[in-house]
Amino acid sequence: MGTGTGPQMLAGLGRPRCSSGIPQDLGSSWCLPRVSGASLPPAGSLVGAQVTSETTQVPENSAVDIYCTAYKPSMSSPRIEWKFQKGTSLVLLYYGNELTEPYKNRVQFSSTKIHFSTVTREDTGKYICEVVEGSSQISKSEVNLIVQVPPSKPVAHVPTSATIGSKAVLRCTETDGSPPPTFRWYRDTMLMPSDPKTSLTFRNSSYTLDSTTGELTFEPVSSFDTGDYYCEASNNVGSPQKSDVVHMEANEVNVGGIVAAVVVLLMVLALIAFGIWFAYSRGFFSTPPARRSFTASPRTAARASSNRRPPSWCEAPPAPRTVVNVF
Question: Are 156 and 241 in contact (CB under 8 A)?
């Protein structure tokens, strides 16, 4: 493999790295070839670079300009690179004086900005512009792009019954909103405050409400917590969305039912024990005595055979006895 065209292994790290020092994707092992005349500064030269950062929010499916404030018109023949970071993934957007393949038909480049004709929720992330002038002078600007998406209908996860004195957790989830929505809870169409003690309606309840995660936790559950619950998601984009209504019933522990179940179980165990005792007393489980068997010696067998009288077919049957009655 020629030098400057493929990945090399960094000493001690054991993962591939582009010979230019910039991988195409942190989660992959391939990279763009080095472009002639576009060599990067030595490793570590980004340390101490001037960095600016800002946040831009635009609705989904709209156009947007992302500016590179690191670029200055006074710079002479600067080299400009754009990268897109989302989570742990880092992808080159503009490199070697050209747009990379995923962006060629969507983005227009100029020295001061990149222009998206339309953006989707997948374009939410950090856009990094690096400007290198000479061999060591580096400027960098970052733009956090948030593509605004209204929330979809949330789902309320509510138990249909809860035991008084126990802990119950209600959850509200929504997956489409950008930025992530905040959540509110309602009981019997009334908005639940974050602190129940501030409301005459909810002061007899004991709960905590996390508007970021959408969790409503009752600890402990009381009889006042019975009601119809639903949640609402909003992020200032579009209209707030409400979930379906779910009824939760707070019930006492059924002591009578538990006692009845224990009594029935004891009766069943007693019947089983009586049946086993009765079977033993009648010998159903006793082992029958083994039959005795022995083998006669040859002498004993011969003696028995000689003493046995052979049958005679000519022998007359014994005469019947005559009984004389004397009067």
Answer: no
220 shares its domain with 182? yes
Strands 64-67 and 125-133: unpaired
pLDDT over 80 (residue 301): no
Q: Is 263 helix (H, G, I), strand (E, B) or coil?
A: helix
Residue span of the structural domain in which 209 resides: 155-251
pLDDT (tens digit, 9 = 90+) per residue, 35-67? 333 333 343 344 445 678 899 999 999 999 999
Whether residues 116 and 31 share a domain: the answer is no
Nearest to 176 by CA among 116, 122, 110, 109: 122
* Residue with the larger pLDDT of the pair 90 and 273: 90
Q: Please tell me the total number of residues recorded for the chain in this structure.
A: 327
At 137, list the tokens.
């002078």
Phi/psi class of residue 307: alpha, beta or left (left: φ > 0; alpha: ψ in -120 to 50)?
alpha
Q: Could you tell me which residues come within 8 angstroms of residue 209 by beta carbon, excluding any fewer than 6 positions away?
A: 185, 192, 194, 215, 216, 217
What would the pLDDT profile of 261-282 be if each residue is shown by its tens digit? 788 888 888 888 878 877 778 7
**pLDDT over threshold 80, residue 180:** yes
Q: Say which residue the tokens 């989830």 belong to.
A: 173
Give CA 183 to chain center in angstroms: 21
CATH at residue 114:
2.60.40.10
* pTM: predicted TM-score of the whole model, two decimal places: 0.60
Q: Which residue has the tokens 């060599």?
A: 39
Coil, strand or helix: which one is 291?
coil
CB-based contact 120:147 (threshold 8 Å): yes
